[in-house]
Amino acid sequence: MDILEAKRIWADVKIELRTILPDHAYYPWVNEMDVSGCEDNKFTLITVHAMAPQIIKQNYYQKIVGAFNKVTGKSCDFSVIYDDEFAKKYAKAKKKESAKPKSLTSPEEEKENTVMANLAQMQSFANLNLKYKFENFVVGDNSEFTYALAQNVAQNPAKKYNPLFIYGAPGLGKTHIMQAIGHYIIFNKPKLRVKYIKTEEYVNELIKSIQKGSDRNGKMESFRQKYRNVDVLLIDDIQFIESKKRTMDEIFHTFDSLLNKNKQIVITSDRLPSEIPTLPARLQSRFEMGIMTEITPPDFETRVAILQNLAEQEGVSAEFKVFEYIANNFVNNVRELEGAYNKVSAYAAFSKSELTLELVKKVLKCEEKKREISFDEIAQKVAGYYGVTVDDFKSASRGQKISNARHIAVYLSREITGKSFELIAKYFNKRHPTMLYSYDKIKDELKNNRELEHSVNEIKQSLRG
């Protein structure tokens, strides 16, 4: 097909997509693409945005393929490539266009400019990931209530559920739902300023602001205003605030400032506020004053739906037994489920193979994995490694040798089984907060202690057999 015919088809496809895609999907992604060629009914599209290939593949692949098929009357496909020269020409044209008097800007151009300004806010100040939207979050019994609350907050920020505190184990979708709130607000309430931050990043920013140097007071004031002059503040993994007194003070005053100005706050954590050691009562009460909601591990049906959704986004077809196999073998959280799918999907793409059950079994090798490991097996391995007994772990002994080994046994019990701290506490005959302390202690030490990391890996390896 010659380039002129390809461009004519692409122009008709854009007209079709304009009627089925919302503004925030059409203008940044579809409208800013052009066609550079077509061979065997596969169109090559070029884009001015480096992130567009990934975004389009994840979110709009099926709709664009459908539009091509409708316009041509044939089965088509397409690929998207970032083109640096095309991007430079686009930037020059936009600069020239921005110099035009506003009175000469058409309503369609004005709408596009608004959407692009919103996109710029999302990519810079808001710090959000474009792939995290309500539309591509798979809702199950484990997340239905949380999803409904999040949508209510997005549609009516600071009206009812403030703050919204979302908690649950890692990898269950807390960040996705939180960022979906920000994504929705930016494109539906563009006058509101949204800011997303991970707690660890917040702590690092605070440390830099209070370091000695010129204009330290000015730096601190700038830091504070950055998070207090927003309409929606999204703070991820708040549990990392533990034992950081200065950070807790700053968070407290930031919360008070925002709540007094009727601004929305959303928080995620891997545990309840009452389970975060050293959290001051005044801050705990702020976290609990709105509504708290838990996301739990997805059931089988939800796991299958998540996998089918991932495949649909990529335009991949597979038999139900493929999704069933993955869902039956990756049960702890969404992150590992998606990781397993991405692994087999990538293998199929590189080897140019169909996504079959045989291929999935070959790549994931789930049959070779050891059966579920129990608390008792973990405790025995750790005890043997450090020359103590399981009874020592369950005793009241606080000797350093036993305590250190016990901390590691607790950490591995949580990491390997994914079971709750309540169940771990019951096995070790200890209080729930003690288990939290043990887990966090080892998790922190592993960041810098190579000897400990080696020991933990050796124990893990012996458990796998």
Question: What features would you describe in this structure?
Answer:
60% of the residues lie in helices and 9% in strands. It has 22 helices and eight strands. The chain has helices at 3-20, 23-30, 52-59, 61-72, 84-98, 107-123, 144-155, 174-188, 199-210, 216-228, 245-260, 281-288, 300-314, 320-329, 334-351, 357-364, 375-386, 390-394, 400-417, 421-428, 432-445, 450-464; strands at residues 33-39, 42-47, 77-82, 164-167, 194-198, 232-236, 264-269, 291-294. The strands form two sheets. Strands 5-6-7-4-8 form a five-stranded parallel beta sheet, with helices on both faces. α1 crosses α4, α7 runs parallel beside α8 and α15 crosses α16. The longest helix has 18 residues, at 3-20. 32% of the residues are buried.
In short, what is this structure?
This protein has 465 residues and is of the alpha/beta class. It is built from 22 helices and 8 strands.
